[in-house]
Fold RNA-binding protein.
Amino acid sequence: MPPKRAPKTRRPRPDRRPRGTTVTRGGREDTREEPERKCIVSGESQPKAGLIRFCVGPDGMIVPDVLGRLPGRGIYVAADRAAIAKAAAKGLFSRAARQPVKSPEGLVDLVEALLARRVVDLISMARKASGAVTGFEKVKDWLVKGKARILVQASDGSERGKDKLYPPDGDESRFIGCLTSGELGLAFGRERAIHAALAAGGLTTRVVEEAARLAGVRVQTGQQDGGETALKDT
């Protein structure tokens, strides 16, 4: 009997790359698929996660679309308080929309409130999925056991109390401190909360992204309550 031939193997083409992969000028592959948009203030393009989307309402009024779901052509501004204020004051929204539009009074404050609500809602969802805890002892236990991915502490909590806990691996990028105790408490169904921790997961990734946008828009006033009561989650 003639010897059996080895089955043919199909060799991949050398120029075939995974779908969604691009190559930079230096030849390095970039697998990021996140689309970019241009900020109408700086003129720079960056990932959508760091921008605030606006659109023009039926009444010709600029509407912030923090969820990115409203219909119509999007107008993007960096998640920066000064940038949004400049876009409204200098008529940059009208230029980008190519039509006369109006900006509501207190646009920056409106964006801040919407982003804060978004972060609170996401943390609340993480809590319901058993991916978030509050309270000094519970947060400390998660940090010690390595379960905590992100440390969250209220901006108006006592520094003496907050200094007793550190972000995982001492990495400051794993720390969120732009929420007030009232906002953080709202996420856990409490009057207020000072300490919280988030476990790894998709919701946590979204919390980090939205908190970064909030931090860019919010004026950080620092410690507001240095009393002993600020040490407790109630």
Q: What stands out?
A: The helical segments are 81-89, 92-97, 107-128, 136-145, 159-162, 181-187, 202-217. The chain has two domains: 30-105, 108-231. Residues 30-105 form a domain with the Hypothetical Cytosolic Protein; Chain: A; fold (CATH 3.30.1230.10).
